[in-house]
Amino acid sequence: MFKYILKRIIIGAITLFILSSVTFFLMKAIPGSPISGEKYKTAEAYEAARKKYNLDKPVTEQYLIYMDGLLHGDLGESMVSTGRTVGYYVGNGFPVTAKVGAIAFVVAIVGGISLGTAAALSEKKWVSNLCMFFATIGVSVPSFLIAMLLILVFGVMLHVLPFVGLRTPANYVMPVISLSLYPISMISRLTRSSMVEVMKQDYITLARSKGTPYKKVVIKHAIKNAMLPVVTYAGPMFAFLLTGSFVVETIYSIPGIGSTFTSSIMNRDYPVIMGVTIFLGILIITFNLITDIISAAIDPRIKLK
User: Fold this and answer.
1) What are the tens digits of pLDDT across the range 70-100?
2) CA-based Rg of the chain, rounded to a whole angstrom?
3) Which residues contact 287 (CB under 8 A, 6 or more apart)?
4) How many C-beta atoms surround the C-beta of residue 253 within 10 A?
5) Can you tell me the distance from the alpha carbon of 81 to that of 34, in angstroms, rounded to the nearest whole number?
6) Fewer beta carbons within 10 angstroms: which end of the chain, N or C?
7) Residues 6 or more apart from 69 whose CB is under 8 A from it?
């Protein structure tokens, strides 16, 4: 186990290095500059800003300077908002995004497993068809379109739900639905296919032949063994929901890390772009590792090597 975790950490570090390097050079290739706005009107102010942020140096030298700071734990300072560090944006935006994402994760797990189980075990064909129709809609329709439809119907037409910010518990309803609908659809499809396969296994037939109640067979044997594909998907999904959907946060004016990332790209704020990208990369790598360990704990046949 220790060797496996160490190996994954090394692979994760290499992946993070490649991610940060590719992001840095792609970011520099984007037309525009963070110091070309109204803030630097005079030539003297412009040149001073170029020297302060090392923009007067070659790109390769800028890269080496940034990576040296990164190795020392320095993510840099925003080029657009003077005095605001990247850590400030991450520290203020991530808790907001994580709260919405955690709620969406719980809704996705509960809703997806419930729909998938109902579709797999129901003797009524229309129930299975209805569940799978819902799952297909969730996979097919983009989250930003769902968000706009929810705002139009429940916010503008019916006036029953607020859709700006996160001031009250009611403000969470539409963002959570927009974020969780796609994961619900994926989990329900995974659960259904896995549950149908598990219910055909010999140990299920044996348990039923011994007179074990049907509900007990489903809860004790079927659901547990059908959850492995769900767990495998849940790790990356949790990381995705914790980092938030950039478009959804922008639509609902949520002051999370997604909207921060979007505005930093619009403003060509290089340090913030790099810092948020690296932070999100660390989250995804970490949750993938946790997912592998949990999968091995659920199914002893999986060996961590």
Assistant:
1) 888 888 888 887 778 888 888 888 888 888 8
2) 24
3) 235, 236, 238, 239, 242
4) 12
5) 10
6) C
7) 75, 76
Distance, CA of 167 to CA of 160 (rounded, Å):
15
Rounded distance, CA 33 to CA 28, Å?
9
Does 195 score more than 60 pLDDT? yes
Nearest to 63 by CA among 30, 34, 24, 35: 24
Rounded distance, CA 180 to CA 111, Å?
9
**Residue from 232, 194, 234, 283 nearest 108 by CA:** 234
Measure Cα distances from 109 to 47, 200, 206, 227 in Å. 53, 24, 29, 11
Alpha carbon 278 to chain centroid, angstroms: 14
User: Measured on CA atoms in the order 54, 55, 57, 58, is the torsion positive or negative?
Assistant: positive
235 is written with which tokens? 């790790």
Task: Provide the H-helix boundaries in the chain.
Answer: 2-29, 43-52, 59-71, 86-121, 125-140, 143-150, 173-198, 202-209, 214-216, 223-226, 228-243, 246-251, 257-266, 270-298
The model's pLDDT over 143-159, given as tens digits with 9 standing for 90+, comes to: 888 889 999 999 889 88
